[in-house]
């Protein structure tokens, strides 16, 4: 938006507005510039055609001269600002009112054209482009008001023209509003994409250096034992946290921006810690935001359960499985090794309360939850959530993938053209 | 993705001193540490490599039992190295070792023929067991990898069976069941007990799952390699 170049303020603003504008808006500006000349020619021709009924031809020529002067000025140096178009609107309205001085009242009441004719419409459209439907309507109202003042007794032409003016200003303004909104959405999506690409680049750098070093320190330090082993464990912990952070294929933001869906992988990342592993596919597991939030709450409840009842050394896995028409989330813990009657014991321990809160959430989503225990101990909670999304998300964003692929291929081509 | 799960207990009948290994890693520190660990444990380290092309060349020249391959080598990706080796009909089995859980890269490498995947933060014993398992031709199947593989089959099914020239077969219900068990941290023994199957049967299922995912067609591998400008002629 900002223009650093030391140009005059008006020119800078103009350029900034032009640079920022949507292609439709730019097209409209060009259209206005062309229309202004055509409207001027039409006004001149209309005046010429009825020159014998004009009371003060010299004044009519003077009015047309002012219009021509402005038209030439804004063609040579287009200024798309509210101020410039306000001036044009004032010129247009004044020219309409000046018709009162040029013509006899009788001629005007008989329905003669105003001197500027359709020329003020350019200003109406200009305001529609600058200020949306409100601007278009306001400018058209001003032009209509001038016309009514000019004729004193409204003719059918005055009414029709005013209605057309209001429709034109309103409709074009509305279209411009829509174009601007979609342009902003696109710009936002591009910004997110760029942010993701940048993070991927950082992730790669971190991966190549920092992670390797931390993992190495951890590995070597555990050989040394004692104090070094404790330091190594710290390095290992940091390595794990950092790896989770940089390997996240966080499509949540982009997904939301595009479809309003949320990626369950991103939403559940926080549950991963020592002893809890999130197992997910390479592609986003998308659910409507509201549904995804409920699922996350249910998973958290299930993991709380594991923490409280499965023993301190129990480990847990959270598996995300997107089978297309339904998403299954399985939470299994390694348990304390209670081989049988675990569920009954769970009921006795009051775990059923938590289970029913999970069951309740899933029932609200139209899904199911089952709790079972394996022969070797450990409890499995399987949640199934129906997914009404029509088809899977087709895109496979893997952030750095395209960029790297392109690099590699270019690289490979430059070296290996001689392959058989 | 963190691989906190211990690898399922797998056979290690081959004595380590008969297992010949090539180590490819662009990080000198890591390359030396891994090679030293392997040598200390009685493996024979034939060569090391620090980029994708030399990994392919040295593996083809020495034909080791196992290539321990860093996923992100300069020059060629892990998947490209695997494809180049498979296309050149090298019988070496590949174990992917990576510092990050870059999901798609791991999946690509496995599809191109890698037999297993381990993050670098895995313990030494786990790593040595994985090299032994790889040498024995057994997939090193961690929960994280199982989740990726399951997701890949789901995706292919939703898209209608893969590309026309390469239809990926669907998993049977039993295979899907076993895959989900592996993906929730169960060992083969535990799965066998749960499903009333023998340990061997579970292993067979796992190998079938891998077989369905991997590119076996030489034409396909060669095209994959050629598209990336890999030289498949004899390295000598």
TrEMBL record, chain A:
Annotated region (Disordered), positions in chain:
369-420
Q: Which domain of life is it from?
A: Bacteria
Q: Where is the signal peptide?
A: none
Q: Which UniProt keywords apply?
A: Kinase, Membrane, Transferase, Transmembrane, Transmembrane helix, Two-component regulatory system
Please list the GO terms describing molecular function: kinase activity
Q: Does Metal-binding show up as a keyword for this record?
A: no
TM spans (from-to): 54-73
The DUF5931 domain sits at 26-187
Q: Which InterPro entries match?
A: DUF5931, HATPase_C_sf, HATPase_dom, Sensor_HK_TwoCompSys
Pfam families, sorted:
DUF5931, HATPase_c
Name this protein carries in UniProt: Histidine kinase
The record lists the organism as Terrabacter aerolatus
TrEMBL record, chain B:
UniProt-listed InterPro entries: CheY-like_superfamily, NreC/VraR/RcsB-like_REC, Sig_transdc_resp-reg_C-effctor, Sig_transdc_resp-reg_receiver, Tscrpt_reg_LuxR_C, WalR-like
Identify the Pfam families for this entry.
GerE, Response_reg
One annotated GO biological process: phosphorelay signal transduction system
Modified residue annotations for 4-aspartylphosphate = 70
What Gene3D superfamilies does the annotation carry? 3.40.50.2300
* Segment forming the signal sequence: none
Please report the stretch or stretches of sequence annotated as the Response regulatory domain.
Answer: 20-135
Q: Which GO terms describe its molecular function?
A: DNA binding
Every copy of the HTH luxR-type domain together lies at 164-229
Q: Which UniProt keywords apply?
A: DNA-binding, Phosphoprotein
PANTHER family listed in its UniProt record: TWO-COMPONENT RESPONSE REGULATOR (PTHR43214)
Protein name, entry field: DNA-binding response regulator
């Amino acid at each position: 938006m900002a223009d650093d170049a030391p140009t005059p303020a008006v020119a800078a603003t103009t350029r900034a507005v032009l640079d920022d504008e949507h292609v439709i808006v730019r097209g409209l500006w060009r259209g206005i510039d062309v229309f202004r000349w055509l409207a001027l020619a039409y006004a001149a021709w209309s005046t010429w055609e009825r020159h014998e009924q004009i009371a003060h031809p010299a004044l009519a020529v003077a009015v047309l001269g002012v219009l021509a002067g402005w038209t030439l000025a804004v063609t040579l140096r287009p200024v798309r600002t509210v101020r410039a178009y306000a001036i044009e609107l004032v010129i247009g309205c004044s020219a309409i009112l000046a018709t009162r001085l040029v013509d006899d009242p009788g001629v005007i009441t008989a329905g003669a054209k105003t001197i500027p004719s359709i020329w003020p419409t350019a200003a109406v459209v200009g305001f529609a482009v600058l200020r949306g439907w409100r601007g278009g309507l306001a400018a058209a109202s001003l032009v209509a008001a001038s016309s009514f003042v000019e004729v004193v007794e409204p003719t059918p032409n005055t009414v029709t023209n005013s209605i057309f003016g209001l429709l034109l200003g309103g409709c074009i303004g509305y279209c411009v509003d829509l174009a601007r909104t979609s342009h902003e959405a696109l710009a936002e999506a591009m910004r997110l994409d760029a942010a993701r690409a940048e993070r991927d680049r950082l992730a790669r750098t971190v991966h190549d250096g920092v992670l390797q070093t931390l993992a190495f320190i951890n590995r070597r330090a555990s050989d040394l034992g004692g104090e070094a082993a404790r330091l190594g464990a710290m390095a290992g912990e940091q390595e794990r946290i950092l790896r989770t952070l940089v390997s996240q294929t966080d499509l949540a933001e982009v997904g939301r921006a595009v479809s309003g869906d949320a990626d369950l992988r991103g939403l559940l990342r926080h549950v991963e810690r020592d002893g809890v592993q999130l197992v997910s596919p390479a592609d986003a597991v998308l659910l409507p935001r509201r549904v995804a939030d409920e699922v996350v709450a249910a998973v958290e409840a299930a993991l709380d359960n594991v923490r409280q009842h499965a023993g301190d050394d129990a480990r847990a896995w959270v598996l995300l499985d997107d089978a297309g028409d339904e998403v299954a989330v399985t939470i299994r813990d390694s348990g304390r090794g209670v081989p049988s009657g675990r569920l009954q014991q769970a009921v006795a321990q009051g775990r059923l309360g938590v289970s029913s809160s999970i069951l309740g959430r899933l029932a609200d989503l139209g899904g199911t939850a089952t709790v079972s225990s394996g022969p070797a101990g450990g409890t499995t909670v399987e949640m199934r959530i129906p997914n009404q999304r029509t088809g899977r998300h087709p895109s496979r964003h893997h952030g750095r993938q395209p960029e790297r692929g392109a690099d590699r291929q270019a690289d490979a081509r430059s070296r290996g053209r001689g392959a058989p | 993705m963190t691989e906190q799960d211990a690898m399922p207990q797998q056979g290690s009948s081959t004595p380590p001193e008969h297992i010949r290994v090539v180590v490819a890693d662009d990080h000198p520190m890591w390359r030396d540490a891994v090679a030293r660990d392997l040598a200390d444990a009685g493996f024979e380290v034939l060569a090391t490599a620090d980029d994708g092309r030399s990994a392919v060349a040295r593996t083809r020249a020495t034909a080791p039992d196992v290539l321990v391959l860093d996923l992100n080598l300069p020059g060629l990706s892990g998947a490209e190295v695997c494809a180049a080796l498979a296309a050149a009909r090298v019988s070496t089995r590949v174990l992917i070792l990576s510092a990050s859980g870059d999901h798609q890269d791991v999946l690509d490498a496995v599809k191109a023929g890698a037999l297993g995947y381990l993050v670098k933060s895995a313990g030494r014993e786990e790593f040595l067991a994985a090299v032994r398992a790889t040498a024995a031709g057994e997939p090193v199947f961690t929960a994280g990898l199982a989740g990726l593989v399951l997701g890949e089959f789901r995706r292919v099914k939703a898209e209608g069976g893969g590309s026309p020239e390469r239809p990926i077969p669907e998993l049977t219900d039993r295979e899907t069941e076993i895959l989900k068990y592996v993906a929730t941290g169960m060992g083969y023994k535990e799965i066998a007990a749960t499903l009333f199957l023998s340990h061997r049967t579970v292993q067979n299922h796992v190998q079938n799952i891998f077989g369905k995912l991997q590119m076996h067609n030489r034409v396909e591998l060669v095209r994959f390699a050629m598209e990336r400008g890999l030289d498949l002629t004899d390295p000598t």
